Every structure is written in structure tokens, then in C-alpha cells.
Amino acid sequence: MTARLRAAGHTAVPASRSGARRLDWAGPSGWDAALAGADAVYLAYAPDLAVPGAGETLAAFTGRAAAAGARRVVLLSGRGEPGAQAAEQLVAAAADAGGLEWTVLRCSWFAQNFTEGAFAPAMAEGELALPVGMVREPFLDADDIADVAMAALLGDGHAGRVHELTGPRALTFAEAVAEVAAATGRPAHFRTEPVEEHLAGLAAAGVSDDVRELMRHLFTEVLDGRNTATTDGVRRVLGREPADVAAHVRCAAPARV
Fold first, then answer.
1. Residue 204: left if φ>0, alpha if ψ -120 to 50, beta else—which one?
2. Cα(86)–Cα(77) distance, rounded to whole angstroms?
3. What is the pLDDT of residues 150-174, one digit of tens each?
4. Contact, 230 vs 166, CB < 8 A?
5. What backbone torsions phi and psi does residue 193 show, to the nearest 5 degrees?
6. Taking the C-alpha atoms of 157, 158, 160 and 162 in order, what is their torsion angle to the nearest 10 degrees?
7. pTM score of the predicted model
8. C-beta of residue 231 within 8 angstroms of C-beta of residue 165
């Protein structure tokens, strides 16, 4: 999204723990420097908005953004996650108190998970194993999220709104893996594994306890079919259909897969 904003003639400054403008959620003393000069703020909290304390942290940050002179805040949230929705309410309340316009983008699994995210190494090795069965998810192209976020950051008509974003069709993880394999020409298949086996593998790889518990929550609760239905969120904001998984992979293949 930074590149998109700059290409459109806007000043965009990413802030993170490793970026040129440092931002550490656990270090409020550095927040004001990270917010200096910001007119609009896009909030993406890692590892997930549903983790304990995320909402309180982002609400405090939103208050500081208002004090720094920002006028808009756009929050990336999780679709079908009660904890994320609770965090949304805290951010919205802080924004209202500070006189900021707020917008929420509710999203779930990304097409990029298979091409450059957490699943990419397994896909390259030819097998993706996850503790999920035949549940269908409308995998979303993260580039569509970036375009919707830009619209909310720069345009009017989004204040106080929740945009729920999905891809155009729902696929099982096995179907998604098959489509990615077909689009890239690299054989890969999907295997369902028990959740405890999956979490043990994460532990062996050095994944922290809190992230493992987040994965348990996502695979045993959120992936229960609640997010299977598609929405018209991308079309309503951008006036076009969202990108399909296969289309994303075909575009990504030369550079990233």
C-alpha cells in the first residue's frame, strides 16, 4: 500500500519495529515520533487483533493519533473473530473521543498466504498440512485490501463504516492448494492433520506460546464455516469485483512464487 500511495502522489511513511520510522506497540514512548505529521493512519496489529490487550493498545494509540493531529484512522480487523470485534469497539470509541473518522476493514485468509506468507515454504516443498477439513473460505487478495484501505484513508463516505471484505468465491484449503499448484505449475497437495500435531510442529519450530494459542483459536473456532459466505464489500468500495485466488497466483508467479 505504501507504493500505491506514493505512486498517487501522497507521502506514505511505514512504521514498524524494523522500519526507518520505528513503532513498537509495547513502547508507547516512541508512538508520538511515529505519528509525527500523519493526517491519516492505517492500523495493522500483529499477530492478530484478537490477542489479549490488542484492543487496549490500539485504543491508546488512536488517542495519541488524535492528539498528533490525525483526522482519520483505518483499522485492519478479523472477520468472524469476537475478540477482534471487541477491539474494534475500543478503537472506534477512542476515535470518536478524539474527533477522528474511523473505518474498519474486516478480512480473513489471504491468497498471499499461499504465495509469500506462512504457507509458502510448505507449498514450495509440495505439501501443506493444516488442522482444517472441508470448511470453505473466500480467500481474499491482499492487494484488494490495500486498494480499499487507500479509498478509506483518502476519500469521503467511509467514516463510521465497517467494510467486510472477501474474495469472489469460497474454496476449501485443498481446493485452494490445487488451484495454486495449477497456476504455478508446481505440484502441491493438501493434507489435514490433527490440531495437536500441528501445534507441536509449531512449537518445535520455535513459535511462541501466544502465537500457537492464536493458531488453535483460528483453526478450532474461527474456521467453523462462519466466514464461508462471500460479501460485496470490495465491489461496493472499489466498483469492481475482487480478485480470484487463481488470478492472483498467475500475477504473482513470475516474481514471488
1. alpha
2. 10
3. 999 999 999 999 999 999 999 999 9
4. yes
5. -125, 155
6. 140
7. 0.93
8. yes
